[in-house]
Amino acid sequence: MKNVNGLIAFWSDIEHSYTDQYRLWHNSEHIPERISIPGFVTGQRYESVNGGRRFFMFYETSSPSVLTSEPYLKALNNPTPWTLEALKHFKNPLRNLYTKLVDVDKEQPTQCLVATRFSCSQPENLKQLQAHFTAVNRFRLFELDKNGTAVKTQERAIYGEQPDTQSYLILMDVDTFDTLILHTLEEQLKTLESYDVDIALYSLEFKLSAHY
């Protein structure tokens, strides 16, 4: 999706006893509510296969400005009763806003995702990373929007403060979790003097697109 340049990413564990209710809330209320906001394009949720927090949720937006728009902030500051309840069961939450730097998409949908957060000592060379991953179905590189991420909202007050986070995010859509791809990713990040590297593998659970 070449016209999608903003991303809201949310990683979290969920209290085990609330998992079924969480999925029901997320599928039937929260994702539909979010993608009804102007500028929101898709909402999706993945479950961890290896590493990371159990669930990875993200929303693609038409531009980074949507992430701090009045309609979106209004939703964040006026959570529904079900959202108020659900957010109390989030554990170890991490929510970041990003601006997209690179997107190479073969438009071949997959169920598997490699999500990698990291910081880098050579950010000027990051856009060259994609050349090493021509076999993947989609390669996206994002940069953290620190100011947007730090905005205080009513929802943030419920699930709490979060730790400092890495400056970059790579999402790779793949057919399978090929160990060669993972090895190449690790080696390339080392070459760029990356640090605080967090690589996790996820499988798609749910996806919904806006209809404009």
Distinctive features:
212 residues, alpha+beta, 25% helix, 39% strand, single chain, Alpha-Beta Plaits
Tell me about this structure.
This protein starts with 5 loop residues before the first strand and ends with a strand. The protein is built from six helices and eight strands; from the N terminus they run βαββααβββααβαβ. It has an eight-stranded antiparallel beta barrel with strand order 1-3-2-8-5-7-6-4. By secondary structure, it is an alpha+beta fold. About 30% of the residues are buried.
Brief rundown of the structure:
With 212 residues, the protein is of the alpha+beta class. The chain has six helices and eight strands, in the order βαββααβββααβαβ. The longest helix is centred in the first third of the chain and has 17 residues, at 19-35.
First and last CA, distance: 14 Å
CATH fold-level label = Alpha-Beta Plaits
Q: Report the major sheet.
A: 8 strands, antiparallel, barrel
Structural class: alpha+beta
What's the Cα radius of gyration?
17 Å
Which outline best applies? globular
Number of domains: 1
Number of helices: 6
- What is the count of β-strands? 8
Mean pLDDT: 94
Write the layout of secondary structure elements.
Blueprint lengths: L5 E9 L4 H17 L4 E11 L4 E7 L8 H7 L4 H7 L2 E16 L6 E9 L17 E7 L1 H4 L4 H6 L8 E7 L4 H13 L2 E16 L3
